[in-house]
Structure formats: structure tokens, C-alpha cells
Amino acid sequence: MDLSVAAGYSMPMQKGDHLFLIDGSGFIFRAFHALPPLTRKSDGLPVGAVSGFCNMLWKLLTDARDTSVGVTPTHFAVIFDYSSKTFRKEIYDAYKANRSAPPEELVPQFGLIRQATRAFNLPCIETEGFEADDIIATYARMAEKTGADVTIVSSDKDLMQLVTPNVHMYDSMKDKQIGIPDVIEKWGVPPEKMIDLQALVGDSVDNVPGIPGIGPKTAAQLLEEFGDLDTLLARAGEIKQVKRRENIVANADLARLSRQLVELRIDVPLDLELDALVLEPQDGPKLVAFLKAMEFGTLTRRVASACDCNADEIEAATVTAEWGDAAHGPDLDTDAATAKTEAAAKDTGDAAAKAPASPAKTAIAKGTGEATPADFAASRIEAFAKAPIDPSKYVTIRDTATLDRWIADARETGLVAFDTETNSLDPMQAELVGFSLAIANNSENPAGLDIRAAYVPLTHKTGVGDLLGGGMAENQIPVADALARLKPLLEDPSVLKVAQNLKFDYLLMKRHGVTVVGYDDTMLMSYVLDAGKANHGMDGLSERWLNHKPIAFKDVAGSGKSGVTFDFVDIDRASTYAAEDADVTLRLWMVLKPQLASMGLTRIYERLERPLVSVLADMEERGITIDRQILSRLSGELAQKAAAFEDEIYELAGEKFTIGSPKQLGDILFGKMGLPGGAKTKTGQWSTSASVLEDLAAAGHDLPRKIVDWRQLTKLKSTYTDALPTYVHPQTKRVHTSYSLASTTTGRLSSSEPNLQNIPVRTAEGRKIRTAFISTPGHKLLSADYSQIELRVLAHVADIPQLRQAFEDGIDIHAMTASEMFGVPVEGMPSEVRRRAKAINFGIIYGISAFGLANQLSIERSEASDYIKKYFERFPGIRDYMESTKAFARENGYVETIFGRRAHYPEIRSSNPSMRAFNERAAINAPIQGSAADIIRRAMVKMEPALAAAGLGEKARMLLQVHDELIFEVEDEDVERTIPVVVSTMEQAAMPAISMLVPLKVDARAANNWDEAH
């Protein structure tokens, strides 16, 4: 494989050329913070950032040169910051003054990364006195003048001011192009106004002041109204809002200063002209020698294969890494996260540059050790399973000075575990009792094994209901003071927050005015890794991965009548319990994060799981309105119908009995009446499960049928019409369900407290319950529902030509199936024939047996067997899919959705035939149901940005997800604008990851209640 496109290319840059400018500083930042720590086996040299940088650069080069997936660069350069001392410091001394020195383990990697760049045969560019962004801006504008195209590989908002029709950005971590529409979608202004917007907003990370109190939305509105910053400042007196007007007038000079700081220079003196950035061929032996020195075994093999050279015949290079004085290093708290640590990095020669400070350690790299993601993950598992957890070292923080030190340490480390303690499991009503933090002492132990944890009590009380002696416990930080300190940390995207079941903490903190940004969730990591294999609660994960059994909640708060809420737990006992939660969570992150990478599941976690945390939390916070009068009336109707059924049941049974008693019912059915099919449970009682009663009803017995109907009515009454009003929030007056992301094997969401996903829609009573879910005055409920999505997914994965064509042509899929199977014309087809085809279509997805289909259609088992056989004859691809899926599951223990999500079925190899058959049916269904679940997850993640881009962000709010349906509350006058945005987003949700072989179709309606909208 020849990795050069421009070998021998020496002509001046011209129209048609394509320049790639890599934000090398941003690459270092991402490589260091996004990946687990990594040290070289032979000597312990930290090389995690180097490894991440090399892998990202190699992927970028190979992907960019693959003409089938992207553009082909003719010119290429990697740009770095020289140091933190730039011309901007002369303008404003406080610029970036809030940055801390880089972590010690990163310092030696700056020079190694520059050497890596040269080993890739790429220009490595930096200029004293300027930031990398200024160099990128200068090259971009120069290239644009020649007519060439430019791709800036970065996601840094500071570079978005450079975007034009010929200059794009590319976020390599998200595989996302950033053009003019994307800038507008995110910030509300086009690229040419980004400088003014940033001048107004400022940047707390870079210490750019801006105008206090002006956020991005307000800034965008002001620029839309006044055009630009100068006009805004000149006409500030016209601003209607008094406080905003006074604020802008008073801080006009700060805005002008901020504009000087954020505006990128396009006149940086350059040592290398554009023509010198031509993309040269890879020097395979040179790159392999460097990678071998770093002991990056997997990447070494990939490069050697691509460059057609023999790695075994190439000696590892001699590479010197130095620990310089960290005070001379860069600050690493933003996207531009590196600076000069070498004295001679401008030339593109082979000589290793030296760090410009006092040498503390020097490591000579020469070796061929292996350091694959799988090796690293395995070493982490082993290390943390052996690492002891010592609760005696936990700290209770009772004063703001100590809390400030912990928060400063968390900022410096860039990683902190966070957990809240409350007096309730309902995040919408829970009070914040305290919170815990855990930080890894990386300076002492880069492997992350040295973890310290603390608890911050806030509202613990003394006494339980003792009005005379009870009250607030002493020596606690006031909630407002603690949150004021915690808020900047939790909202800082440069510090990774780690939590277990973060959605609870996220929603709780949002109620307190804090929006958590930059996070990982260990529960969701476990779910991605092991859905179907184990539960994902913290206690179970701790025992599994850390060999440690955490303190049980009941051991500190008691249980039953003697139990108390956490705010009445003694602070010393509470501290041990809470600090342990944070400690365990951080350790779990250390163990689980590398496994995502080693198993190739990072993309699933980052695109399907983690983004949903904030989406679902927002939906839960919004809630939905219900009409109590409708529910009260329905309760009365259901009670009357249930009473009528009871009378009929007593008459058929010949006596009165407690219908809800399984024992009494079993004795009536199988003892007194002697009905067939009776089987006793382990307790010796007759089984009266739903399936037993359904089988008896299908056999023509009236009493079991009446019992089934009675159970349905009484369940609707107790679960919904009676219970729903009790869930109305006392302040919001709405019902707030709670969604679980990690409770099903296939990826489908579930809801609880109350469960809104199981309201039956096929019965008149169930539909009536949906009429009680209403819109507020001036709004409509909008329901958008995927049409037959699982059949469409089946047609895609099994590649069934007849089904694909039917969906393409918009034909009734069940009528088409009936026509194919029974030779009946679609036109004028009897409803019974279509019903049978529909039962088979959906039954096949769930692996239905002849016995099950016979019961469903009330036909003989032999006839049902003939139907299934004929179905497979007409659609052989479905049989092939089912058999290949079962074979894959038996071999691997799991199946995958079309996006790569795994659903594990470890019992598919069971010696128990019944267990094995159940797992086979589930494995067949999981890729279908799971892919449908993934599609709606993707739609939910994309929905709010799509609505915001259409100017509907505050006017159309996503409230509920019920299987294949999304429910929104939309202002009356915006319904017509909202429907096409919602439909388009849902129908295109699989893109660009998957191009479906069949079109997805969404039906959307708006009405005053859920039933009418559905």
C-alpha cells in the first residue's frame, strides 16, 4: 500500500488541492484525557498520550487517503502551541492565567509526540509568540486565496471563525464534518460572527472576560438584532431589557478587549511556506523504528503491513524522552492543550529536540514490547482486583477551605468521581443531603491505584421526628456555599466526571442550577460490555471487578420500620458509606474504560449510551400533564366492569371465592372443575399463570377467559387509573416517569414510577387511559411513531427482496405476505387472511413456535406448522438469517445489532433444551428489536439539536419515549413546522452510520391528548 498521494509533487498550491491542518495540541489533549494511562512495559515511561496521538494520526492519514470514504489531501501539517507565552499575554496579563501546570506524566510526552510527527514524515510546526490556532488561521487563509480547499482537524470552537465554503473543520473523534450550517446550528450565528459572539460571551477556560451574564443564546440574539459587536455597543442604549442594557454599556471595553483575544491572527510569520506542506510518502522503516521504540506492537504491525516492510528486520530507534521543569510546560485545560517542551522542533529533520528545562529523568527507548488495548485492559483488571480498599483513609469535609483544595486537586488531575446522597430515590423531589468525591493520585501512582475519597455532608439532621431535640447537625457546609464551589467543576468540560447511574445525579444537580458537562457513567459502560450477562449495579460490579463487597445501604440506614432516610444517618457512618461509593466508582471506571476500547465498543458507548443521559434527564424533568377527572371516571367504569365479571365468574364456578387468590383459583379450576393442563408449582399449588389461563381460554373454556379479562381490568385500574394521580408532582403538577437505560438485554428503554410503556393500546380501556395524558393550554401533544420498524429492520438484516420491494413501494406488508404465501390477490383480500399473515410476520420476529401460532390464531398445531414452513419457503432469507444468528450466538455467546451493540445470551449453550430454545429465540429477536431500539436512541440524541436548528428549541419539547414512539409538547402555532423536523430526524436516524436497505417511515399527528395524537 502506497500511503503517498503526492509523491514527487512540487508544483505551487493551486485550485483543486486540499490542505489538512491538524490541531496537534488538541490531539494531545484528547489522547491524554480521553484514554486510560499507559506506560511502556520495559521502563515505566508514560506513553499514553503518545500512543493515542499516533493511533489518531495514523487513522486520519489512512482514512483521508481512502478515496472511497473521504477527501484526498495533497498537503498536510501538524500544528502545535510553542508555549503559553503569546502576544495575547501582552494584551491581557490574565489571559489563561487560570491554567495549571501539566501533569508530570505528560511532560516527557510532549517531545515524544513531536518526534512521532516527524517519524510520520509530516511537517511539525510551531511559532514563538503565537498559538497553534493563529498558525492554522494563517495557513488556512493563504491556502484559500490559491483556490485550494482546507480541512482543519479539530473541534475547537475558537477555530470555527475560520469556516467558509472552502474551509471546513473535522472532528475526528466524532467523525463529523463541521461546515457553515453546523456552526450556525451550534452557536446560532454564522462563522463570520463567531468572533463577536465569543467577545460577548467570553471564555472561562481561557480567562477571556467577555460581558458578565451574557451567554451564547443571548449573544446570538443580540448579534441577529444589531448585526455586529461595534453596532451593538454603539446602539446599546436601544436594548429594551434594563439590566442587560446597563451591563453591556458598563462592560463595553471588556467586550472590545475580548475581541482582541479571541480573533485569530492570519499574519503569523511562517518558516515553512504552503508549498513545503506537500504530503510526502511515508518512510515506513523510519516510522516502524519509532513505534517499536515506543513498544506500540499493534500499530507497528499495521504500519509495517501498510508500508510493505518487515518490522522484524527493523531495529527500534533510539529515542530520548526528558522530564523537564513542569513550570516551563504548557497548560492543559483546554482544546489547545500543549506547548513548547522542545527547543528545536521547527525543523523537519530527524534530530530529537530537547526539553528546555532541568532534566529530572531520562529514559532511553529501545525495545519491542507489546502494549495492546487488550493487554492494558487485562492488566487493569488484575491490578484493581488485588488493590485493597481502605475506608479508614476516607475524609469528611466540613469546611469550604478543605473543599476548595479538593476541587483544585480534581481540576489538576482532570478526573473525579462524583456521587450524591439524598433523602429520596425520586430525583425530582429528593433533597441533597451530601456528596462525595474521589480523586486518583496520579503523581504518586500513574496506574491510578492510589485513590483518595471524601464525603461532604450538607443537610444531615439529628433525631428522627424529635421536634424538641432534633435539628441540623453541626459543622456542615451550607448547601449554597458548597454548590457555588461545585458548580464550576461540574460544568467544566475539561474535567471528566465519573458516576454510577449518572442520570439521577444529573437531574438532581440540574434542579439546583448545575448542568453536569463532560462525564462517564460506569453503569452504562458495564451495560455496553455485558448486557444480558450480569446486572450493572455498583455493588455487583464492585464484587465482580474489584473483589470488594461495598457497605450495604441498610447497614448504615437500617431497614423496615427501623430504617431512616440518609439525612438522619450519623455523619461518620454516612461518610464511610458515601466516600466508598465514589472510591468504588472511580476504580470501576479505571477497569471498565479500557475494556470498551479493547473490545471495540467505545463507539457504542459514546454514541448510543452516554448522550442519552442528558436527553432522558431533560425529558424526565419536563414530565407530562394528566387529567385527574378522566382517570377518576375511568376508575369508576373499570370497577363496574370488574364487578360484572366477578358475578359471571362466581356463576360459572358455582360458588364465591377470592378471584385474586392463586390457591383458591387453582382449586376451582383443576380441583373442583377438573380442567386439563393443570400443573403444580414447587409450593404444591396449582399454577394459574397468565399463560396457563390463556391456553385454557384458547381451548374454549369460559371461566379462564373471564378470569383473564377480569385480571386485565383490575390491573388497569390499580396500575393506572387509581395510581397515576398519586404520581403528580406537588410543585410541577405533572407526572415525571423515570427511564432506565440499562435494564433490558436488547437496548430498549424501560420506564417506572410510573411505568408508561405498558399501557395497552389494543384494548378500548387502554386507549381511554391515554386520553388522560393531555397538553397544556396553548399546546398540542405530538406523537411520532415508527411504522413497522422491526419488520423493516428484518428486511434489512435478512435482505429479503420481496419485503424490501414492498416497503419501497409502500405496499401493505401484511397483505403482501398473505399474497405471497396463500396466492390471494392483495386487492379485496379477506381481513382474516391478512390477520393470519400479520400474526406470522410478527411471530417470526419473536421466534414463534407452531404451538404458539396455533394458540394465537385458534387453529390446529399442524396447520400452524404448515404456515411457518410455507413462510420460510417463500422467504428463505429469513430462515438463513435465523440459522446464521443462532450459530453466531452459540459460538460467541452474544449477537449484535446493526450498529454493533451486543446482547449476550450465555445460556444458549445450556444442556437444558427448554433454556437453550428460549435463548435461541431471544438471540434471533435481539438484533431486530435491538436495532430498532438503537435507531430511536439515535433519533432522540439528534432530536433536540434538530429542533434548535429549526428555531423550535423552546417551542417543541420531547416528553416521552414509548418503544417506537416519541411524544412532544408543541406550541399550537408551531405544530406544522415541528412535524417535518421530527419526522425527518426520526426517518434519517440511522444515517450516516447505517444506510438502511429499506426506508424508515414515521407517522406523526398532533392533538389535545395522547390517544387522539397516536
UniProtKB/TrEMBL annotation:
Q: Tell me which residues make up the 5'-3' exonuclease domain.
A: 17-280
Q: Which UniProt keywords apply?
A: DNA damage, DNA repair, DNA replication, DNA-binding, DNA-directed DNA polymerase, Exonuclease, Hydrolase, Nuclease, Nucleotidyltransferase, Transferase
E.C. code: 2.7.7.7
Q: Which CDD domains match?
A: DNA_pol_A_pol_I_C (cd08637), DNA_polA_I_Ecoli_like_exo (cd06139), H3TH_53EXO (cd09898), PIN_53EXO (cd09859)
What Pfam family is a match, any one?
Answer: DNA_pol_A_exo1
Q: Which reaction does it catalyse?
A: DNA(n) + a 2'-deoxyribonucleoside 5'-triphosphate = DNA(n+1) + diphosphate
Span of domain DNA-directed DNA polymerase family A palm: 766-974
Family matches, as PANTHER family? DNA POLYMERASE I, DNA POLYMERASE NU
Q: How does it assemble?
A: Single-chain monomer with multiple functions.
What does this protein's UniProt record list under function?
A: In addition to polymerase activity, this DNA polymerase exhibits 3'-5' and 5'-3' exonuclease activity.
Q: What is this protein called?
A: DNA polymerase I
Species for this entry = Neorhizobium alkalisoli
- Higher taxonomy: Bacteria, Pseudomonadati, Pseudomonadota, Alphaproteobacteria, Hyphomicrobiales
What's the encoding gene here?
polA
